Amino acid sequence: MAWVEKRGDGYRVRYRRPDGTVGTDSSHPTRKAAQTRANAVDTERQQDTYIDPSGGKITLREWADIWLEAHNVGANTAAKYDTYLRVHILPRFGDCPLNAITRMMVKTWVKELNQRRASSTVADILSVLSMLMGEAVEERRIVTNPCRRLRPTADLKPERPWATELQVLAIANHLGPAEATLVVTAAYTGMRWGELVGLQRQNCKLDDARIHIDPDVGALHEIAGRLELGPPKTPAAVRTILLPPFLVTRLREHLDTHDHSHIFVGADGGLWRRSNFSRRFWRPATDGNPKKLIAPVIPGMHFHDLRHTHKTWMIEDGIPEVAQAKRLGHRLPGVRGIYSHVSPAVEQRLVDCLQKRWENTGNP
Q1: Given a cut of 70, is residue 339 above it in pLDDT?
Q2: What is the mean predicted confidence (pLDDT) over 118-132?
């Protein structure tokens, strides 16, 4: 049962914890106000909704250490969390007790971040802080999550570009044979960068005209500067991709040029890093290079836009949404994802359309 004690010029509410120790709930200027709060504490404890204020006195830095120890995510995500905490969250809130972090403090911080970072990055940073504070609520250290329903200012981004089959061929023609094959494979499969550069011979089933994305080592990840094979982005990304005939032939020819266990490697046999490939090959091929008399194709296009390109082609060809999602490694939400399936006939029609697109560029 909570009681009231005189303390200096005011009164405080005290209570006994289950372990026998005595805690302080709050301080008040009058006995009447303190007694009202003491009655409320008794009611909350009877209803098992009481939040012990001492639990929220832990600093965010201390709480983050506890949270990270218990949080189970992949190495890539863990590295991202570490960066957001170290660079953005802990410098501002690390020494603050959890129960001292207010909504207005967070809103001010988000406003400042919006002036220096893209809205998508700010949203990711805010999401990490919100997870920390949300777990503190679940652990009954604080009453509410000060990040709840906060959103960074959205950027008005232009629609990402996509390429026609002739533009893909033009980009490829600006590259050497190995790099060109990587680009063509990306455009005609919709595979992610990490899936492409992580693809190994054992998962390239050319006799069956299929590529398999392995659940354990199906993607190459760059984590804190290190390249590591690991699972693809999502469980839905574990899939088998049917290849059009021309691409089977092209990949066979490409594999005859080296004996590395990976399909796509650099000239020195090393695995590709996205930044190196972009700087040395992708940017000059898409933006153009006047010194080398390379004409621009689609200035500003990202390598990932080849994935958008593949999606656009499937839409143009009237491929069912479920087949599009399966090929790209997505999962349709709700009932559509449960009851929709891709038949072999639909899959064959998809690759027939891709083969026709290639032939329309004047290639056999």
Answers
A1: no
A2: 93
| pLDDT for res 179 | 97
Burial track 120-136 (b if 16+ CB lie within 10 A, e otherwise): ebbbbbbebbbebbbbb
Dihedral angle, C-alpha 216, 219, 221, 226, nearest 10 °: 80
The backbone torsions φ and ψ at residue 69, rounded to the nearest 5 degrees and listed phi first, read: -65, -35
Confidence tier at 333 by pLDDT (50, 70, 90): confident
CA distance 15 to 40: 12
Whose CA is closest to 195, among 215, 213, 216, 222? 213
Distance, in Å, from the CA atom of 97 to the CA atom of 142, rounded to the nearest integer, reads 10
* 193 and 253 Cβ atoms separated by less than 8 Å: no
The percentage of the chain sitting over the pLDDT mark of 70, rounded to a whole number, equals: 98
Q: What is the DSSP letter of 142?
A: S
Residue entry with tokens 């503190």: 136
Strands 210-212 and 240-242: antiparallel
Cα 53 from Cα 65, distance rounded (Å): 20
229 CB-contact burial (10 Å; exposed 0-12 / middle 13-18 / buried 19+) = middle
The pLDDT of residue 154 is above 70: no
Nearest-CA neighbor of 122 among 100, 94, 96, 89?
89
Q: Give this prediction's pTM.
A: 0.76
Give the pLDDT mean for 319-339. 85
